[in-house]
Amino acid sequence: MTKPNRWDILLGILFLLCALCVLLFFLPNGDAPARAEVRVDGDVMGVYSLAEHQTVDINGHNLLVIEPGEVYMQEADCPDRYCVHHKPIAKTHETIVCLPNRVVVTILGGEEAAYDGISR
Amino acid sequence: MTASPAKKLALAGLLTAMAMICSYAEFLFPIHLGIPGVKLGLANAAVLFALLALDVRTAFLVSITRLILTALLFGNGVTLAYSAAGAMLSLGIMYLLMKTGRFSIYGISMAGGVFHNVGQVTVAVLLSSTPAIFAYLTALIPVGMLTGLLIAFLTDKILVILRKTERI
User: What is the mean pLDDT of residues A77-87?
Assistant: First the structure.
């Protein structure tokens, strides 16, 4: 009977390290935590984690509230206030827009929405 | 070991037949390990045996004949591309490791199992131009190691018995 020698064991450890490297390399793409990206006039103003509670003042015009798992607009100085009435967003690519103030809030890297805009 | 050409040819035919039966058995009764497409790769035991007990040329012949015949009988061109890439890369690596003289049958077969999967995933990436498929290697490298070690255990047992009775 042959027994594995130390070269075999070294090779085994090397393979396992390779598997780990592949895992680490591909992991951030798949399981990144959800973030809320705030754009004003098309420029990114900031990206905020959905993991913790915080409020974001957007240039004194809008007040965005980030709660664990969802984002909504609490206040806005625009006349129509559509963004304030918009339901809280939580899933990837969901968006709140405040057109008068040119503010766009988008969810990035979170859970995919179950339906697209049409079938919802 | 040194075998006469006739004996080598006879053994090569026998090993090819055994490899084909192994492939067919796995085709009929796939073992599901929770990961789609994973097979034990019993046919590699015949190739490993040919590599260690005969020579790399015979191992290559057994492997390529088995590939073509199983593709003709149970597969198609696409499955041939996958299994050929895996089998050739696997045999190449096993031959290189054997040539270093440092690795036992376990190291050689383990590397063979791993690179079989690496070859197949590479073909999948090339055919679908989706590099993200490489992420699958996270699971397939350990699986290749495990199946390689099992094949090594099996082949080692057979080699020990045959050497004891001086059949080869």
Answer: 88
